[in-house]
Amino acid sequence: MAKIAAEMLVEKVTIEAADVKTLFLRWPEGYDIDFKTGQFITVFWPDTPAYKRAYSLSSSSTDRGFFEVTIKRDGKMGTRMVDWIKPGDRLGVLPPVGKFLPVFEPDHHLICIAGGSGVTPFRGFAREALHRGLDTRITVLYSVRRPTDIIFREQFEELARANPRFEFHVTCTRLTADDTWSGHHGRVTPQWVRQHIGDAEKTVFYACGPNALVDFAERLVLEDLGAPKERMKVEKWG
């Protein structure tokens, strides 16, 4: 059965970094669907319906009445979105799909490894856990080049203050003399990931972002740590 597209109003556009924006897409009247945190929507401009692009939701299933997607300037669609989209525009939206879903069990720990804009679905994970008052532990390990590239920095820090079972850790890989940064630096390493693991048997690993980072995370979890394949969930963004 073909997926039915809905036209949605771009109600708000938020700049997250120099080349990243979040779009707040208001549901049209009568639109009310069931979906899951971690899924993605496919969007297109009404004037070019044949060209579509999928983006992970950065909002959660507990956010009703709207979708949020966070888009990096990349490719034809991403460049047009970041450079030209504005409040009042409209986009065609296909319903959410996908299997990159959080395992919200009270005795589980979700370790979420992200690079660049790959952090966006984990905002939805953290928001749902807070909104529902869940006991599941969530740790985001996030790699960026410089502090100015951190997406949702203030929001993640606020989520960590509001939820003692959520942690947000960042490592910067290309610091310059102009950067003020006292946190972790360098690429994601096996040692850095291991220091955040408590009970490995109760840990579910997620990785989202550039292929190289996701491939590294898979090798670390499946080979170095020896975790079973079902406890490793990945989303590659090229």
Describe this structure as you would to a colleague:
With 238 residues, this protein is α/β, with parallel strands linked by helices. The chain has two domains: 6-97, Translation factors (Elongation Factor Tu (Ef-tu), domain 3), CATH 2.40.30; 109-236, Rossmann fold (3-Layer(aba) Sandwich). It is built from five helices and twelve strands. Strands 4-3-6-1-2-5 form a six-stranded antiparallel β-sheet, with helices on one face. Helix 5 links the parallel strand 11 (203-209) and strand 12. Helix 2 (120-132) packs parallel to helix 3 (153-162). The two termini are 28 Å apart. The mean pLDDT is 94.
Evaluate the radius of gyration. Answer: 18 Å
In helices, the fraction of residues equals 10-25%
Strand order, sheet with most strands:
4-3-6-1-2-5
Kindly report the CATH topology of the largest domain.
Rossmann fold
Counted by DSSP, the helix tally is 5
The helix/strand series, from N terminus to C terminus, equals EEEEEHEEHEHEEHEHE
What portion of the residues fall into strands of 2 or more residues? 25-35%
CATH class of the largest domain: Alpha Beta
User: What gap, in angstroms, lies between the N and C termini?
Assistant: 28 Å
Number of domains: 2
For the record, the CATH architecture of the largest domain stands as 3-Layer(aba) Sandwich
Keywords:
alpha/beta; 238 residues; Elongation Factor Tu (Ef-tu), domain 3; globular; six-stranded antiparallel beta sheet; Rossmann fold; single chain; six-stranded parallel beta sheet; 12 strands
